Amino acid sequence: MAVSAPVQLGSATGAPGSLTQALTTSIDSPYGNTIVVLVGASTANAINAVTDSAGNTYAAGVSYTDGASFRQRPFWCLNALQLPSGGTITATFNATGAVKLVGAVSVSGLAAADSQAAGATGAGTAPSIATGGLGWPAEIVFGMLSVKTGAADAFTEAPGFTGNSPALATAALRWAWQIVTSSAGVTYAPTLGTSRTWGANTLTFSGAVASPFNRAAQFTYLEI
Question: What's the pTM value of the predicted model, to 2 decimals?
Fold first, then answer.
């Protein structure tokens, strides 16, 4: 099965005052898909875990900051149980003081998580981060970007990437994807309309590639 274009399950934002932030899905995520969740919060608040109403178990990626005061962390569940429209995905934090941002997508055709970049920080209008060489020629690359302020700024998505629905409050949590068919590295480089302190990272997943030894069954008949 080839890697599919992600289906957006939704996004949600929340103000300080709770240890959790829930996202209600607006579309079904079928059995066997991979659910990828991106969570953002103020740096002082650790992003602990993600759960959902279907009972899926999520692996946690690297928690990464923008070098100033905002944090992002991806989570994913491969071969997930069905999460119907109207289900919930809930991020848990270690303190109530954070601005909380959550986004989620569902993808078919993924075999394994490949790599997460070391991350990059900077200030200006031209964030950029490269994946380095990919481990497999059939992959999906997620580019992730956070800024503490500037949710209403103009924004131009990186060339070759398709944007997911962002989570926008006072802070902005944006992410996008690109399906690739070679192991060459990919650069995620969107453009901000206003100079901001930013943090960027990438997360890649390998697709399920058919073995070259898979062949139709062959039969030999011996007449006696």
Answer: 0.90
The backbone region for 86, taken as left when phi is positive above 0, alpha when psi lies in -120 to 50, beta otherwise, is left
Long-range contacts of 183-186 (CB under 8 A, 24+ apart): 183/133, 183/134, 183/135, 183/136, 183/137, 183/139, 184/133, 184/134, 185/130, 185/131, 185/132, 185/133, 185/134, 186/130, 186/131, 186/134, 186/141, 186/160
DSSP 8-state assignment for residue 106:
E
Q: Which helix (H) or strand (E) holds 181?
A: none
> Do strands 59-60 and 196-207 pair parallel, antiparallel, or not at all (unpaired)?
unpaired
φ/ψ of 99, rounded to 5, equals: -70, 135
User: What letter does residue 192 receive in the DSSP assignment?
Assistant: E
Say how far apart CA 19 and CA 16 lie, in whole Å: 9
8: DSSP letter: E
Instruction: Please calculate the CA angle 47-174-10 and round it to the nearest 5 degrees.
Output: 80
Residue 72 one-letter amino acid: Q
- Whether residue 165 contacts residue 103, with contact meaning beta carbons closer than 8 Å, is answered with yes
Going edge to edge, which strands form the sheet with 20-24?
Answer: 20-24, 88-93, 47-52
Scored b (16 or more CB within 10 A) or e, 88-107 reads: ebbbebeeeebbbbbbbbbb
pLDDT at position 57: 98
Q: pLDDT tens, 130-140?
A: 998 888 889 99
Sign, CA dihedral 97-199-126-5, equals: negative
Measured CA distances, 19 to 99, 106, 175 (Å): 11, 25, 24
